[in-house]
Amino acid sequence: IALLTMQFAFCQNITHLQKKGNKTQLIVNQKPFLIRGGELGNSSATSMESMETIWPKLTDMNLNTVLTPVYWELIEPEEEKFDFKLVDDLILRARKENLKLVFLWFGSWKNSMSSHAPAWVKLNQKKYPRVKDDQNKSHEILTPFSEYNLQADLNAFKKLMNHIKDFDQKEQTVIMIQVENEIGMLPTARDYHPLANEAFSKEVPKELLQYIQKNKEKLVPEFYEIWKKNGFKTSGNWAEVFGKGLHTDEIFMAWYFSKFTNQIAKAGKDIYPIPMFVNAALNAPEKKPGQYPSAGPLPHLMDVWKAGGNAVDFLAPDFYNPSFKQWNDLFTRQGDPLFIPEHRFDETAPFKGLYAIGHYEAIGFSPFSIESVADAKKEPLGKIYDLVQQLTPTIEASKGQGKMDGVLLDKENNAQIIKMGDYEFTFKHDYTLNWSDGAKAEVWPMSSAIIIEIAKDEFYIAGSGIVVTFKSLKENLNAGILKTDQGKFENEKWKTIRHFNGDQTHQGRHLRISVGDYEIQ
Ligand code: N0T
Questions:
Q1: Beta bridge partners of residue 183, listed in sequence order
Q2: From the alpha carbon of 182, which atom of ligand 1 is closest?
Q3: d(CA 359, CA 25)
């Protein structure tokens, strides 16, 4: 009995994802955790010395989590000789800084290449074969069709997870793992290695066919259409079931990438089951497979990726293009949690992060190359993260209940309506007020806000650069302000700093947070 109780405690304790209403929470040290993240540039965390000047920047920007690579080439420089010193040092230092870690497993694949494979893998292509294109030219991409390739990555990843378990399961500084990085086929859509050709001529695996039959009503339309065009075939080889062409090459590769990656994640989770995800380099719609990192964990391939296993908890977008809403909608359309491990660290990033947390109820956000700031103390990201930190208990309590939303505004899309409780709120960009400083500016900075209904007729609104008007959703009723307070949370308790009325609420007509102010009201 005693033993059973202990195991139970362990399972409860470990970092995990948990459904709440129609959304997902990340539970860390038994509490909901919202990731205020930042991802380090690819070569920054290769020594503690190179990290030295970076730590204060991270805490100055109010991060609670750092996303940082673990490099296969550095942990297993010689076959079966492992070195976890750097991993340990990062964990120990992160604890000191009160930061959590998401480790990015730079194993077999990093941005459609195999740059982080150790030299002993790179130099032994006979044993560890690479992708070939249709001209029989070899590319620096380990082929997912080789059992040796799989076993080598799997072995290293298992050792890593074993080590993290031993070193960290008590404190749980490492809260998630990204398995590989931006997997994809570039510049050839399909692998023509003999092992790949053999797989391509074989029957489509039953597992995939059964999954898509079972989930037929839920499949993403892009994939559904391809299957439909070929008459919803439930047997045959790849070309028979999905037709001939680049789209089938991509589906085929996605399946084998997913199988490979899920096997890695599963082996890791069998040792230490913390959440694991994969990230995607987003494709440009006008490009064909092979012209972008194809077959990666992209929205149009989501079903194929999911069919390949469930050890990978979710697929995550990396944003280097501006279509923020469009891609997030695609990644969440089957009800999956949203986590954004990378966003270009530009001036829009903080506002998009806040929006993602409000509207998609994301489990976290993380600009890329987080250390590249000159003066971290002045960064808008730090101010937005401060708001998020203050609101986290409220956000997590409201999650999955339809009591939270967000807006993202700029000059083109300068207004957005939200209905919540008995009210309709119109959020506009602060510069739509013609008396705003900056209203005449050529370019408007992006602004955003999050709104949370905390009780009947009571709301928190937090953000920057917005003005809000409201009306009642009940017929023949006017809505007016009872009270607007600006304030902050101190030790999770609300503290009013200023009571807003008169000119500050336009005599009760609106609520306003100017550009450059970061407030909760
Ligand atoms: C990202 C990062 C890092 C205009 C690029 C994005 C990171 C990787 N790849 O700095 O390499 O490790 O995940 C590729 C998307 C670039 C598209 C540019 C379009």
A1: none
A2: 13
A3: 14
